[in-house]
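Q: What residues go here?
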């Protein structure tokens, strides 16, 4: 058997995908996301930061990850994290937006509502 045949026979056999896994992948792709406005507060320093997200269920994890890595783009939020740690910051939802068919309309509404909440809470943008 030549080397090429041997290599092709070893790499050509992909493991079969179970129907449970296929169903789980399909359900994940079809899940509804909830867009909205969120706030991160530092009780010690009395500071707040407001942001917008197309998926509120995942944004906290993303923010906390970048803060732990020391690489969050909002310097004042990163400084508060460095000074007070995870226990010093709290994450909360300000508003959930209704499902929009158009991404353009959703994004425009997110920007408008984020501006409203930044003004209302006297907060910085994330």
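A:
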């Amino acid at each position: 058997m030549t080397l090429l045949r041997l290599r092709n026979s070893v790499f050509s056999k992909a493991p079969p995908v179970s129907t449970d896994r296929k169903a789980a992948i399909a359900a994940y792709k079809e899940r509804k996301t909830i867009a909205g406005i969120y706030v991160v507060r530092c009780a010690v320093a009395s500071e707040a930061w407001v942001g917008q997200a197309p998926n509120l269920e995942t944004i906290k994890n993303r923010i906390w990850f970048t803060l732990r890595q020391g690489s969050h783009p909002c310097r004042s939020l990163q400084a508060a994290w460095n000074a007070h740690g995870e226990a010093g910051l709290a994450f909360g939802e300000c508003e959930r937006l209704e499902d929009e068919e158009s991404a353009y309309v959703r994004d425009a509404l997110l920007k408008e509502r984020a501006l409203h909440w930044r003004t209302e809470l006297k907060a910085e943008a994330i």
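A: Context that may help when evaluating the design: The two ends are 61 Å apart (CA to CA). The chain has one domain: 34-125.
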